[in-house]
Design brief:
Structural class: alpha/beta
Distance between the termini: 35 Å
Number of helices: 9
Helix content: 25-40%
Mean pLDDT: 94
Order of helices and strands: EEEHEEHEHHHEHEHEEHH
Radius of gyration: 18 Å
Number of strands: 10
Strand content: 15-25%
Low-confidence stretches: none
C-alpha cells in the first residue's frame, strides 16, 4: 500500500502549486487510473513518489509506503526502495533505455545495481522477463532502435519488473502507439497486475482507456483530485463539471 497525504508541490519560479494538498491511497493489488489533462499534476505526483523532480522543487506532505515516508528517506535508503519496491514505466519507451546498450544489458545492469546478490541464472531471468511481456528471448541482444514501438514499450515493462517491485507507476505508457498496439500494452499490464498481484497506478489523459482496465479512477484538474470512483460510477454518474466534460468527450 502507498498513501499520499496532503501532497503539495511547487516548481521553482512558479507562482502556484502544481499539486495542491492531494491525498489518496493505493491499496495492495489494485489497478488505479489517474486521469487528467496535460498540466493537471498527474506526472508530478509520480515524480514526487520516485523523488525524480528537480532538486529545487518544493515538495510537502507525506508519501508512505511500508511504513516509510519516501519524502524523508536519505539517498541510500531511497536507492533500496526504487526498483525493488516501486518502479516506473515512463512516458515514451526510449526514456527507459540508453541507445548504445542492448535490452539484455539494461536488465542485467538494473538487477546488478539494485540487488545485493548476483544472480547466477541471469540469462534465464532475462528470458523469463521478456517472455512475461510477450517478447522472444533474442530481443535481449537487440538495441532499442531495432525494436518497434510496441516492442520497446514491452521491453520497458520488462525492465521495470526486473527487480520484482510490488508497485508500478505507468506514466502514459501508450503514448505515440497505434490503437491496436495500445490495446495490447494495456492488456499486458492488466494481465501482469493480476498474475503478480501488482499495485498499478496508470497515469493517462484518456478516460476510456483507463476505464477499460482500472478498478478505480481518480480525476485530476488543476492540481487537485476532483472526483474518484469506479469506472461505472465516473462514467454513468459524474459529479464534477470537469468529469462531466471528460465523459461528454467520449460520446
Amino acid at each position: 500500500m502507498i498513501e499520499f497525504r496532503d501532497l503539495t508541490v511547487r516548481y521553482a519560479g512558479s507562482a502556484s502549486d502544481a499539486v495542491k494538498g492531494v491525498s489518496f491511497t493505493l491499496e495492495d493489488g489494485t489497478f488505479t487510473g489517474l486521469i487528467g489533462e496535460s498540466g493537471s499534476g498527474k506526472s508530478t505526483i509520480v515524480g514526487s513518489a520516485l523523488r525524480i523532480l528537480p532538486r529545487d522543487t518544493s515538495v510537502k506532505g507525506n508519501i508512505i509506503i511500508d511504513g516509510k515516508d519516501l519524502l524523508a528517506l536519505g539517498e541510500e535508503e531511497l536507492r533500496r526502495v526504487r526498483w525493488k519496491d516501486m518502479a516506473l514505466v515512463p512516458q515514451g519507451a526510449m526514456n527507459s533505455f540508453t541507445p548504445v546498450i542492448t535490452i539484455g544489458r539494461h536488465i542485467t545492469e538494473t538487477i546488478s545495481t539494485h540487488e545485493t546478490e548476483c544472480r547466477a541464472d541471469m540469462n534465464e531471468t532475462i528470458d523469463r522477463l521478456l517472455n512475461e511481456v510477450g517478447l522472444d528471448a533474442p530481443v535481449k541482444d537487440k538495441y532499442p532502435h531495432e525494436l518497434s514501438g510496441g516492442q520497446k514499450q514491452r521491453a520497458a515493462i520488462a525492465l521495470a519488473l526486473s527487480c520484482s517491485p510490488s508497485l508500478l507507476f505507468a506514466d502514459e505508457p501508450t503514448t505515440a502507439l497505434d490503437v491496436v498496439t495500445q490495446a495490447g500494452v494495456l492488456k499486458l499490464l492488466a494481465g501482469l497486475q493480476e498474475k503478480k498481484s501488482l499495485t498499478v497506478l496508470l497515469v493517462t489523459h484518456d478516460l476510456p482507456l483507463a476505464a477499460s482496465v482500472c478498478g478505480r479512477l481518480l480525476v485530476m484538474k488543476d492540481g487537485e483530485i476532483v472526483e474518484s470512483g469506479t469506472p461505472r460510477e465516473i462514467i454513468t454518474d459524474p459529479r464534477h463539471e470537469h468529469t462531466k466534460a471528460l465523459v461528454r468527450s467520449m460520446l
